[in-house]
Amino acid sequence: MKTACIDVGLKRIGTAICLDGKIVLPQDAILRKNRNQAAQDVKKFLDAWEIEQLIVGLPRGGSSEEEMERRIRHFVSLLELDIPVRYQDEQGSSFEAKEMTAGQFRHKKDGKIDSIAAKIILERYLDTLRGE
Question: Which terminus in the chain has less CB density within 10 A, N or C?
Fold first, then answer.
């Protein structure tokens, strides 16, 4: 099943795909000007890859957990998808992405970290399916 993951942020949306159930590849992040533009761009991304399932990172823990979850679920509703959507705990994924890439490239605001975080979230989801 072709699966994609998005890590929804206020400025960027990290993206990753897994086309074979094994290898997860980060993709270019979607820069967010406003939620409608971002939703259209995410929909185009999903259509271009013929994605059959979407995994969405949700923050667990932290003081703004409920507010961020509400915003993320609202954003996903704007996508008007007819494929399954699953939510996966994203806690620590951005920190892990920064640690993983330390020294490999400058941490600019180009979305690379966001997409690596999406890759980590998708790998966690796939690991739960495999019982790891």
Answer: C
Specify the residue for token string 């979850």. Answer: 69
Report whether 121 contacts 57 (CB < 8 A): yes
Nearest C-alpha neighbor of 51 from the set 88, 14, 17: 17
Structure token digits, residue 103? 């020294």
Per-residue pLDDT, 99:
82
- Domains plus CATH for the chain? 3-130 (3.30.420.140)
Contact 37, 66 (CB under 8 A): no
**Furthest CA-CA distance within the chain:** 40
Query: 3, 54 in Cβ contact below 8 A?
Result: yes
Which residue type does 34 have?
A: N
Beta strand segments in the chain, E: 3-8, 12-18, 24-31, 53-58, 85-89
* 52/44 Cα distance (integer angstroms): 13
64-76 pLDDT tens trace: 788 889 999 999 9
CB atoms < 10 A from the CB of 130, how many?
Answer: 8
